[in-house]
Amino acid sequence: MTTIRIKSVSAPVGSCDADCAPVRANTWRTDFPLADPARVGIGYAVEPSPFVFTPTMFAIHDHHYTAPNVPDAARATITYEFSTAAQVKDFLIVQHTNGIVEIEGFAADTPAAVSSAGASIGVARSRLVGSATGGNMFVEGARDIFEFPAHPARLFFRILIRKTPLANGYASYRLYPRNADHDPFTVASVETLSTHAGLITLP
């Protein structure tokens, strides 16, 4: 089991235009441990606790596109910060009926660098449907895997949603980065952050 934890999850401010957790809480960056379980916002992507769990709550939901099936790249990103350098093997995405079929991964050691083209580790496609397009492509709540071709260990990881099956809208319930053992990374707690700082040792 990995001791690496997620320290924060962030998305561009205002990057969703329909009902979802960040819109409801007006929270586009979530740091862990949670300061306010009532305002999880974009942190809902990795389902941290403690908070009020709503299984039908979207983590992201948007309708801004630059071409059919291509979301606006300035909006369609989520960035994950880790406690120490992490190798992200793949993503587990819990799909909405009109979900996501392609994501590009970016890995770097600074927030600025993770936005650059040079940080790209490649494109990952839906294991369930590939890059297929059309309405109602997924069974609601389907658990889908997106595996990246490269897995460098870095402090920051960003996904860019490159393609959706519906021409003009998408949503997702959860977007979990996973390690080489295919386990989702969990969020930081006071104890795990202290461990990484060398202050205490946990069993």
Can you describe this structure in just a few lines?
This protein is mainly beta. It is 6% helix and 36% strand.
Write the layout of secondary structure elements.
Elements: E1 5-10, H1 21-25, E2 29-31, E3 60-62, E4 65-67, E5 70-71, E6 77-87, E7 90-95, E8 102-108, E9 120-125, E10 143-147, E11 153-163, E12 170-178, E13 186-187, H2 190-196
Parallel strand pairs: 1-13
Antiparallel strand pairs: 1-2, 1-6, 3-12, 4-5, 6-11, 7-10, 7-12, 8-9, 8-11
Stretches where pLDDT falls below 50 for ≥5 residues? 192-203
The tally of beta strands, per DSSP, is 13
Distance between the termini: 13 Å
Beta fraction of the residues? 35-45%
Q: How many helix segments? A: 2
Structure notes:
With 203 residues, this protein is mostly beta strands. 6% of the residues lie in helices and 36% in strands. It has helices spanning 21-25, 190-196; strands at residues 5-10, 29-31, 60-62, 65-67, 70-71, 77-87, 90-95, 102-108, 120-125, 143-147, 153-163, 170-178, 186-187. Strands 1, 2, 6, 8, 9, 11 and 13 form a seven-stranded mixed β-sheet that branches. The protein has a four-stranded antiparallel β-sheet with strand order 3-12-7-10, with no helix packed on it. The two termini are 13 Å apart. Mean pLDDT is 89; it is low at 192-203.
Question: What characteristics describe this protein?
Answer:
mainly beta, about 200 residues, seven-stranded mixed sheet, globular, 2 helices
